[in-house]
Design a protein that fits this description.
The structure holds 2 protein chains of 2 kinds.
Chain A (H helix, E strand, L loop, with lengths): L1 H24 L3 H4 L5 H10 L6 E5 L1 H4 L4 H8 L3 E3 L8 H8 L8 E5 L3 H4 L7 H10 L9 H7 L3 H17 L45 H17 L2 E4 L4 E2 H6 L1 H13 L12 E2 L4 E4 L2 E2 L1 H20 L1
Parallel strand pairs in A: 1-2, 1-3, 3-4, 5-6
Antiparallel strand pairs in A: 7-8
Helix pairs in contact in A: 1-10, 5-14
Chain B lengths: L5 H16 L5 H17 L5 H21 L3 H38 L17 H16 L9 H8 L13 H8 L7 H34 L6 H32 L17 H7 L2 H12 L9 H19 L3 H20 L10 H22 L3 H11 L13 H18 L13 H18 L12
Helix pairs in contact in B: 2-6, 3-4, 3-5, 3-6, 4-5, 6-7, 8-9, 8-16, 8-17, 9-14, 9-15, 11-12, 12-13, 13-14, 14-15
Classes of the chains: A alpha/beta, B mainly alpha.
Amino acid sequence: MKLFLRNILKLVFLTIAILLFSLFFIKDRVAQSSILAALPDKHYLLNSINESKIIVLGGSNVSFGLDSKVIESQLNIPLINMGVHAGIGLEYIVNDIKPFVKKGDLIVLIPEYEHFYTDDFYGEMELVQTVFEIELQSKKLLNTKQWMHLLKYLPTYSAKKLKNFVPSIFNKKTEIIDIYHRKSFNANGDAFLHWTLPNQNYLHAPKSNNIENVNNEVIVFLKEFKFYTEKQGARLLIFPPVIDETSFNNKIDIITKIAKELKNNDIAFECEPRSFCYNDSLFFNSYYHLNKIGVDKRTHQLLKDLERLKSE
Amino acid sequence: MLFNSFEYAIFLPIVFLLYWFVFNKTIKLQNLFLLIIGYIFYGWWDWRFLFLIAFSTIFDFTIGILLEKSTHAQKRKWLFAASCIVNIGLLGFFKYFNFFIDNFISAFDSMGYHIPAVSLKIILPVGISFYTFQSLSYTTDVFRRKMKPTTDFVSFAAFISFFPQLVAGPIERAFNLLPQFHKKRLFDLNLAVKGMRQILWGLFKKIVIADTLSTYVDAIFNSYEVLPGSTLLLGAIYFSVQIYCDFSGYSSIAIGTARLFGFTLLQNFSYPYFSTNVSQFWRKWHISLTSWFRDYIYIPMGGSRGSLTKTIFNTLFVFALSGFWHGANWTFVIWGLLNGLYLIPNLILKNKKVISENNVFGIFSMLFTFGLITFSWIFFRSNNLAQAFQYINGLFSKSLFTYPVQHGMAITIPLIVILFGVEWIRKKEIEMFQPQNIHFILRWIIYLVMIIICLAFFKQNQSFIYFQF
């Protein structure tokens, strides 16, 4: 037994040593050019604006679903689309922009539905990638609970880095800019390379079951964020994400619960979730990613809502 | 709790240490601990399922004792019938209720009678098909006087809820596994090391091969209407490999885990895709289920002892039943029937000759068998019969002879080649991954590389295909 345990411990120790080495000393070439690496670019855009602005927050439903230039020119206010990927977690998405919120700003928050009832709120592999490769200083933004959730992604992330690193020693590929590349965003932060591409097949959201419930932590967190923005002299508006019709119907139970919970806590969606449920044909490669026709439709709908809310 | 989860990676070492260092004093303590752990493991999915497994356990334990006490043949038959009705009744209710109701309503609809839809929101308890069969095999063997019933309830309950094989087998026979609960387990280094290797190989098959292929299989089966025949062929082949790696991976982890606790489980797979005919395939695929159907259904029905017509009927019946066991969907029944039909030429020709796979004819037979099995998997994977037929229609079209639309072939083809290459080399061995003859440094490097690769390919929440059955 002793020999068995000793050997198992040796194997575990060796594995951990390799993973730690990979985590801290190997460069993740994939992350450096990924969509996540656009985050510092977006911070740069935010920093360059000294007047009141609109900041749109969310996951890829925002980055792949807006033509910000249209809203910016119609409302005559600079707009930065901060959307990157839902996997970095709603908590991080919000905490990350807090230092940029100034008096007179309008914060348009459009979380993905999964942020309300899954661990997406705390962040997934994409958040690990962000804090270890993209924005090293942002580790301090994470709280203990987030770290606890991220713990399970660390071994996989370290191993993935090794997996990407080993072939890159032998194969120095030229950089290919695709729709998930750092450079696939325009000056407002919208992902735009897919606007000219045809729709791809994708999986709809699975049917929600009755055991899914809204995470109360998300509600408390959003209430605190509302309070924070008001204290800064800014205004927070929460919108439902755009989603394809099939997925909307599959998720109808949990969407209803989310909308009800937000309303009961005085942080209601600014419009009915169904109003942002679009025909499946308007989606590019995911139930949250719009094609160009969808982007235009969503942009004009959001513009109308913002004009209405601005005048209220 | 999934075997390929963070929770299980913590659960298993804790249970292992407690088992060997705290609860190792007596057999009773060891069994009691395994029983508690089995219920925690099972209750992790849904605690309500525990009532069902507990009821099934108490009922079959009591029937076993009553069967032994009773000398009256008719009474014994009634007791056995009660066990069958209760076990199959529970399985039928939880698994097939809505299926029968829907089909009943459709049948009446087609005759012009409208019956209002009635369907219950029934959650299918994980692994019910597996433990029900295991429990039923116990009462059957006691009824046939093949074994004495146990009077030790804790051992029996631990046998039914033994966590490594509780949710997806191998379906253990009472005469193989139950006596192991009656002996005190002593730590066996050799068995434990073999177990760990088997767990590692199982994880590799599941995480690296099956889960990688599943992405492409899902993509192909979800958009089969627009894809060329060549890509649909690729999708069917991918699924053949995916289901093999998924299920045999699970079985390897289950057998390996059981070894860590001093138990030996039945082998469930034996290089099935190297079979040179379908009958051989079924002796090497999901062995514990195939032999269960053979021993408890096929042979009692008369097996191959009667006329040819009777033998063909028995074969088709058992295969259709085996398909139905997999799920309440006509796709599974057709899959089963199709496999039964494949066996008919052999039954007519009474061909029992085993073709060696080491010559050109053998390799051709092997590929032909793989083709037949792959074709039947299309029904297994499809959501309904319409989808299966449309898929087959698209597959056998002119576009079959075009270059397939890229579906990850750069990664999937090397993985499939590595899998079958290594299996081909090891096909004479009972156990696939036992590198004890390699120098220890190289062996450790292999372990480390496999662990890192598993971690690199790991995706959260990837369930096993057979968990739904």
